[in-house]
Structures are given as C-alpha cells and as structure tokens.
C-alpha cells in the first residue's frame, strides 16, 4: 500500500495557485538585517554594538565556511538525514509521518530543512497556533521544490542556519552561538552543536528535554560526550543571560549616532584611545573611592578639526552621560575672565593684583570671596593670580571688566548653558557659579588652543570643517596659554611637583565647585584638548579632593598617552605680542621675561602705596550710560559705585551725601543725568564723574548674590 500523503500531493500539484517567485540567495542575504547597529571608530574598527530591533536578536550573516562543521552535521542528523538525497521534499519521510500519525495522538512532522527555509522566507507559509492549512502545506512543498531546483545545498543550509530560531529571541547561528556559549560560530564544539540542534524542534523547551534530545543525538552520531557532560553543558547554556550586553566603551555615543538595525556608522572616535581613556578614568576613580568619589567623565578633542577622539560618558556603571551633564564650573572659567581683561588692555600679565579680604555689597547682602586655602597672598601679579587660581583677584578683575561683558564672553566661547541673565550669577561668576557641560567647557579651552578661533565639535567625520570664527583676541589667548603652562607661577598654590606638570608644553586649569561637589581638569597641547570631570552624579560632596588630586591624574595619563610618540610644542607668539624683561619695585616677584599686548608693555612695575594713590572714581566712568532693565522691578535694580583710595572720603550724588567711599556703594538708579563726586570731610570735591541713566534697554551692570564655588 502506497503512502497516502505523496499520492495526495501529486494529485493536487496542478491545482496550486500562482505564487511569488522564490528569491535568490543573493537577495536573501542582501535583505537580511542584524538586530544590532555597529559603531565604528575613525579607522573602521568596531567599537560598540547597540541593539535596535527588539523583536529578535540577530548577529551579522555568517557564511557556511565560518560555521563549525559540527553544527551542520548535528542539524542534519536531527532534522533532515536525507538532505543531500531529496529535491526539497522527503516523500519517504512524509509518507511515514502520515502513516504514523493515523495511530499517534501527537503528530509527527516531516518538514525538511528546505521546507523550513521556505517558511522562514515567506511569512504566508508560517504556521499559526492551529498549525498550517492544507493550502499552506501545498505552497510550502512547491516553494521547497523551487528552492532546491535553483539553490545549491550549501546555500540552503547556510540560509537556514542564519534565519532559524534556536532559543527565545536568539535568531540565527551568530546570535545563538554568542548568546548560549559566548562564542563565534566557528568555535562551536560537537557537544555545543548537538545542544543547538536539539533546540530546533522546540526553541523554548525545558532544559531537561533539550539535553535528553542532545543525549540521543550524541548516541546517533557516536559522539564521545557522555549524557552527564551534555546535561551540565546544557544547564550552563540555558542559564546564560541572553539579553545581557557586553560592556562597551562608547554606549552614549552609539545611542546618539545609531538609529536603525544593521547600520554601520563610522565615528571620529579612536578605539585605542577610547579604551585607554576609560581605563585611566576607572583607575583614578578606584583610587578615590575612600574620598567618596564615584563618577567621572572624560573627553578628548582634536584642536584642528574639532573631532571628538574620546568620549567617556561615565566609568561604566551608569547610564548618565557625564560629558553633556551640567555641573558647576568652579575656577575653570577664570582664564576667559583674564583673557577679557588683557584683550581690553585693562590688565597685563605683569599687573599687580590685591589678594586681600574684600566684601562687595549686593541687593541680598555682602559678597565675601575667599581663596581655596582660606589664606591671602597680598600683592601678586596677574600671572600668579591666574596660574595659582586665587579667587579674590578674580573677583576684582570681574569688577574691572564688568559682569555683563564677561557673561557675554562666556556665551561667545560656546557655553550655551548660561541661559540666565548676568545678574542671576552675580560676582561669583568669576569663580564658576554657572553650570556647564564637560564637552562645551573643553571646546571653550580649544578656543584658547586655537588662538581665539571658535569651531564646533563633531562625532562624525566631516569632509571640510566649517570655517572657524574669531571670538577671542589672538594675542590675549596666547598670553593666557603661556600663564596656564607656567609651573613657577602655579607653584604658589600647587607646588612645583604635581600632575599638571607634563614633560612637554601644555596649558591646564583645574577647578572645584562649592562643597567639593565637582572637580575639573581641562587643558590643551599643540594638537589636543582634554577635559576631565570627577564627582558624584547624585551631587554628594567629595572628601578633601582638589583638582590636582581628583581629575588631574586622569588628565595627565591621557595627555601622556596622546604624546607618547611626539611631544607637544609651545605655540609661537602671534603678531602684536611682545616679550619684555620685567622687574618689580618693591620686589614682589622675581624678575622674569613677560609677554605683553603691544602698547601695554612695561619693564618696571612699581607698586604705589595705598596712601600715595590719588583718589578716583573707578565706576561709573566719565560719560557712562546705564540702561534700566525693563524686565526687572525698579526696587531690586542696583548700580555699585566704586572708588580707589576712598578711605576718609564720602560719596556725593547730585549734591546729596550718600555714605563712606571706602567700599562699593549700592545705589538704586533713577533715570536722568547725574553728577557723582568724592568729597572730603569739609565737602570739598576730590574727584567727580558724570553719567546718565536711561529708562529703557538692557542694564549695563547688575549684581546679584549666588552661591560661592570653592574655586581652586
């Protein structure tokens, strides 16, 4: 008696409806999409994979020659022993299955690998919960015969192993080998291959059923593995987390650049540098664990192109992107304040600053800045004030340059997070009360590195970077860089030996925010700018951590790595910058060679005693125009009168005495022309200035109280 199923199939084949053409192997492979997108570094090296398609986990397509021969052997034994003899449909097996099913409660299938592939390629042929209909079965048979006629056996087997589901969401041999055994397909052993083959009949079967099938398959293949060994290996594989990703060094970058499956995006990152930077940061954070430091971020920029070469968003234990998170800047803003003063020729690097106690009246009370070490250095140069990060001279410089102007300068160098008006930050802006991101702050230092030219940064290669624009004076930027590279000037606060002193030319600044919540080290060489932040993402304060002990060691490690083959060179002075040998009288600092903006140079800096200084009005200057801010209530707007050598003198405005001139005097401005004078005890005018207050437009200067950063 002939098997019933083959006869029935033969009878109905002429009645099959028209079907879509079977795809070619090339079409199938071309349309295949892995579930992950890949981030490549600047050299094309894989740096990060990111899961995009959540419906299933698929690796890249694997050629049959890259699959361990053990797997096809095990799969053919388990699924289709006459694969190389039949033409897509095994009529003998189908007949036996039909006959057996007449007497068995559980149906027995007879689908060949070719038939299974046909269903994988055509969703209309896939079975529902009730199984396949007769028409689906006929279509599957026809599709399998067409596949066998137009594809080679190797092509069929390769496609099947790449498309079939093995376990849960693991689709294809690449994902299954990695997910179950942590291997590439070429490394599969015979035992592992038998386990994978045993999963094909029931991808979600219990581990006991899987190893029992694998044990039976082992006997059929005369494999050396014992059932106990197979059971243990199965339990280990089944217990392996299937959706756990390997920790990769650029997750946040991948999330920014990758948006669809099977996407390969080349970034500007350097894989080796990225790995080194992440390792250096982790090691430094481990060294700081006893000081309550848990988080950090690091970024490396190419000065010329603006390409981001390393982007370490965190130490690997957080999803937070520390490169773009906003944190209080601390003293890292001081270089831009002094650059503004040099550019406007209000100060030189040799100018003498008064590092002594100062208090400034604001609408909410007195503002009293302190230095990081709670000590005052007396009379010091601008070079020493900036390099040693003294706070009081910085506040005095801000009074000199103007709060509004400095606020605008910070926005010009790319600190877009300063969205509040200048008076919101107040005089503490000199010490970094504003919040900035590590990326924007590092790019602002890149402006100094490039001689005052601003350019955007990028994570993807650009054929031609956009033309930079000048935002800082080239000469003033050069002098600031020279100060930030000066070990001797830095030694007042940091000593001569510290992590800031590289073996090549580099300019660097540290910063620590209020209550030691944020710690920064940002600096640059001829070719690179490196920024590092350490602290805690939850805002907890660190314990006794400064820029030199916190962020600087990681900065130094990365800088040394970048220049391991070619040391950085000092920049050449631009036109309009002159060098002069200077000395101080009295000898506040040792004689030295100093840089000056042309027209501001001086060979001898003589300090005039306070008692010998002529009284004068510093602010407002003659013919100053002050505009009231229409967005602020009149009652809270203030202008601060400031005088030099005002001891024993009084302020007099429009003939009315206001108070002592020994400190800044807050005055509520009223529209109109005004005459401000310094008068002595007998009402004699010692100095005077005329200014105007207008009732519209933005106020030229306001001050407000804000939290004081620790500086450094």
Automatic annotation (TrEMBL):
Presence of the UniProt keyword Ubl conjugation in the record: no
Kindly tell me the pathway this chain contributes to.
Cell wall biogenesis; peptidoglycan biosynthesis
Q: Which reaction does this chain catalyze?
A: [GlcNAc-(1->4)-Mur2Ac(oyl-L-Ala-gamma-D-Glu-L-Lys-D-Ala-D-Ala)](n)-di-trans,octa-cis-undecaprenyl diphosphate + beta-D-GlcNAc-(1->4)-Mur2Ac(oyl-L-Ala-gamma-D-Glu-L-Lys-D-Ala-D-Ala)-di-trans,octa-cis-undecaprenyl diphosphate = [GlcNAc-(1->4)-Mur2Ac(oyl-L-Ala-gamma-D-Glu-L-Lys-D-Ala-D-Ala)](n+1)-di-trans,octa-cis-undecaprenyl diphosphate + di-trans,octa-cis-undecaprenyl diphosphate + H(+)
Please tell me which top-level EC class this enzyme sits in. Answer: transferase
List the EC numbers from the record: 2.4.99.28
Residue ranges of every copy of the Penicillin-binding protein transpeptidase domain listed in the record: 296-534
Q: Which family does it belong to?
A: In the N-terminal section; belongs to the glycosyltransferase 51 family.
Protein name, as recorded: peptidoglycan glycosyltransferase
Q: What is the protein's species of origin?
A: Pseudoduganella danionis
- Its gene? pbpC
